[in-house]
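Query structure, 419 tokens:
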């Protein structure tokens, strides 16, 4: 038998689960919020899409964006951006769908119109990777240690950023050993607005080449490397939108250097990205496992171009960050309002279910309990006696508990039922 409390408990439990998931983000426990093709077209400001059998392309006068269904790869105005979830669906009925988190990041951070504002005078903390006993990657011929290359690049970038009017600090300016924890603590103690970790890459495949830029994956999504685990919420997730704006701004410039292979804006839960409280990126300039690329990275012209690209990216971010602050604040307000509306809707639904269950219980009680039947005491006694004398099996069992059969009879003889 259904009790009055069961649907109420279920309703409240459902309310709790849904409300908490709505607050925590888009992918709690792996459940992704999806957006339809129509939603994506509206967001991107296009009315049509082009399907060439392999990619879906959206374009208008400002942007050309290409997605690869079944993959996390996307191409935004010529720059590779890796999504948090692959685009799903099929071309037969245009049933494709995109993760809401990807669309939000794309709309607010990646596709932000370049601003002409004066760059905000941010405090940038440059982090030359490795150092001291930790050499990082190395190329044997020509001999290059990652720790030396990253320090040289950081100093060049820092000098240009200072010239552009930004404040610059370094996690190290010499060949010293520094833990990852010490680096992220410096970001806090120096009150950095931005953290840029500088590295060179290494792979077992000597042909691997190109530049890649990393930001922290949003809560609940895996990194872009094969087999990456899904992580819970990290300190760095406070800055998902700003991380993406910074990462895309820098990567767009780095990837456009001639003869550079664009490996994309990627995501990985590296320590310095998840534990840094300000917006943070990690740059992998090129592969020390590739001899040709190592030679190229040693060239002054390449270093000059690459450092200028990072500076251009940081300045683009510094011009746009005010707009992003505003649009993210507006989105959070909208999300909070939607969550509140949803919470109220679920609470009303749970209350309706509880009221219905209670009414059902009362109806059942009315059938089994005679208390609802108003009948003069004399009539009740006469009827009881009549039934008792007619059949011994219908004997009352106590003064206040009438057998069910008598109740049915009493109900039948209630005044409104008597003809
Ligand atoms: Zn490294």
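Result returned for the query:
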């Amino acid at each position: 038998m259904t009790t009055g409390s069961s649907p109420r408990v279920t309703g409240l439990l459902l309310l709790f689960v849904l409300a908490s998931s709505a607050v925590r983000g888009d992918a709690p426990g792996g459940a992704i919020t999806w957006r339809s093709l129509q939603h994506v077209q509206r967001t991107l400001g296009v009315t049509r899409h082009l399907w060439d059998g392999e990619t879906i392309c959206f374009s208008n006068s400002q942007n050309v964006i290409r997605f690869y269904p079944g993959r996390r790869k996307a191409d935004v105005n010529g720059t590779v951006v890796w999504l948090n979830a692959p685009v799903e669906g099929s071309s037969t009925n245009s049933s494709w769908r995109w993760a809401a988190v990807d669309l939000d990041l794309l709309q607010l951070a990646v596709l932000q119109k370049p601003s002409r504002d004066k760059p905000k005078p941010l405090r940038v903390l440059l982090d030359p990777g490795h150092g001291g006993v930790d050499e990082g990657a190395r190329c044997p011929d020509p001999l290059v240690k990652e720790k030396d290359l990253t320090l040289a690049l950081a100093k060049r970038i820092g000098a240009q950023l200072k010239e552009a009017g930004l404040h610059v600090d370094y996690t190290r300016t010499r060949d010293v050993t520094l833990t990852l924890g010490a680096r992220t603590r410096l970001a806090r103690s120096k009150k950095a607005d931005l953290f840029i970790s500088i590295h060179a890459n290494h792979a077992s495949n000597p042909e691997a080449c190109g530049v890649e830029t990393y930001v922290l994956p949003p809560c609940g999504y895996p990194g872009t490397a094969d087999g990456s685990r899904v992580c819970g919420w990290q300190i760095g997730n406070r800055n998902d939108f700003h991380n993406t704006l910074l990462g895309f701004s820098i990567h767009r410039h780095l990837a456009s250097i001639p003869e550079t292979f664009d490996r994309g804006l990627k995501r990985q839960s590296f320590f310095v990205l998840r534990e840094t409280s300000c917006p943070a990126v990690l740059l992998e300039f090129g592969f020390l496992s590739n001899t040709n690329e190592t030679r190229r990275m040693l060239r002054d012209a390449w270093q000059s171009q690459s450092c200028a690209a990072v500076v251009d990216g940081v300045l683009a971010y510094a011009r746009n960050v005010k707009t992003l602050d505003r649009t993210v604040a507006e989105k959070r307000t909208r999300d909070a309002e939607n969550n509140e509306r949803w919470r109220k809707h679920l609470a009303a639904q749970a209350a309706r279910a509880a009221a219905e269950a209670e009414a059902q219980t009362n109806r059942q009680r009315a059938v089994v309990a005679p208390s609802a039947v108003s009948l003069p005491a004399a009539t009740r006694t006469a009827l009881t006696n009549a039934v008792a004398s007619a059949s011994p099996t219908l004997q009352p069992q106590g003064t206040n508990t009438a057998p069910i059969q008598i109740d049915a009879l009493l109900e039948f003889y209630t005044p409104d039922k008597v003809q």
